[in-house]
Amino acid sequence: MSDSLLPTIDDLDVAGRRVLVRSDLNVPLATDPDGSVRITDDGRIRASVATIAALADRGARVVVMAHLGRPDGQVQARYSLRPVAARLAELLARPVTLADDVVGESAAATVATLGDGDVAMLENLRFEAAETSKDDATRMGLARQLASLGQVYVSDGFGVVHRKQASVYDIALLLPHAAGALVAAEAAVFGTVLSDPDRPYVVVLGGSKVSDKLGVIGNLLGHVDRLLVGGGMCFTFLAAQGHGVGDSLLESDQIAACAGFLADAAARGVELVLPVDVVVAREVSADAETAVVDADKIQPGWRGLDIGPATAEVFAAKLADARTVVWNGPMGVFELAPFAAGTRAVAEAIIATTGTTVVGGGDSAAAVRLLGLPEDGFTHISTGGGASLELLEGKTLPGLAVLSTPQPPVHTETGTEQETR
Known about the structure:
- Helix 1 packs across helix 2 (82-92), helix 7 packs across helix 8 and helix 9 (309-319) packs parallel to helix 10 (341-352).
- It contains 13 helices and 19 strands.
- It has helices at 43-57, 82-92, 105-112, 136-147, 181-195, 214-220, 234-240, 255-268, 309-319, 341-352, 362-370, 385-392, 398-401; strands at residues 18-23, 29-31, 37-39, 61-65, 96-98, 119-121, 152-156, 177-179, 201-205, 226-229, 271-273, 277-281, 290-294, 303-307, 324-328, 356-359, 380-381, 410-411, 416-417.
- Helix 6 links the parallel strand 9 and strand 10 (226-229).
- By secondary structure, the protein is an alpha/beta fold.
- The radius of gyration is 23 Å and the shape is globular.
- Strands 5-6-4-1-7-8 form a 6-stranded parallel beta sheet, with helices on both faces. The protein has a 6-stranded parallel beta sheet with strand order 11-10-9-15-16-17, sandwiched between helices. A 3-stranded antiparallel beta sheet has the order 13-12-14.
């Protein structure tokens, strides 16, 4: 879906109005020995700033909605958005008031005190079980409560637009709505990649499991020129070619599917490129004994944990003339130094290309930041791993589709008015 199909915040009159912004602030946290909670990667918070700041600068009374972790509909202090609100305030250089609940008395009181240009945040949406309910009526009940706190809705959490949830889908049926800057940008980039990519079009897939990406691979084979496969998922492909993989990650029940993909790629003239060598170890640790072996010579007791240097060179050569690149999934256990070289090499090869380069969120985006690679070296770093995968699979995402539905009227303090665009 192209951003040209989506209304944006420029289409909305927000001055003096309460604007509910669904952001994706689901960031990783760590607890220090003194008990304090620390954000270990604030990439998603930084990505949310542009829309929130733009709305506040236009005089909106901004109410940020987000989730953190999986509290399963229960209020749990360890999943409070308090550290997230504090970091957002630092990045915005303005106060962010955190309500103590989602739709209760504190939320209502917090929203009621907002002035033009102020920013507040509701507590973790997933403290409310209805947020993720599969029952339409249950979700809509929460959506109505959320909508009562605002007058306009802005969807800016790309990492959740593949979810049919109260704050993502149902609320857009109740309020005038638009895509925030982040969601509009993500939709535009993936719209181009999916509909009209410059060629050669190369996709790099990594990560641990083939089973997580069956639909993606099946769909991509009809669109790409080259598919480079690394990460743990490559070993099931290698097994499908008849190679032993030692103690490497292997999904035996997917070997036949991988064999089918290899045959389909050959029939379509798509280059499906697998590792020619791998970095192996007996254990996954930062001080493990490692070796580089040919991809078809992994011995029992050893497991492949990264692509090898020869594979990195092959992948770089296949990327060199690419005009469109999408990368989703690391090449190895990049969090540990002995197994990070492959991911770094592939990332650097992507940066060196001259075309459109898209990092498909999730672990790939985390790897860019952890390895200290320049984020501006890529055309776009997605904030939604799951959402980007479903787009690459060819699915319609409910959180994007709902933004193209008719605009409800604005609820004013004295009644309603039809939103004009």
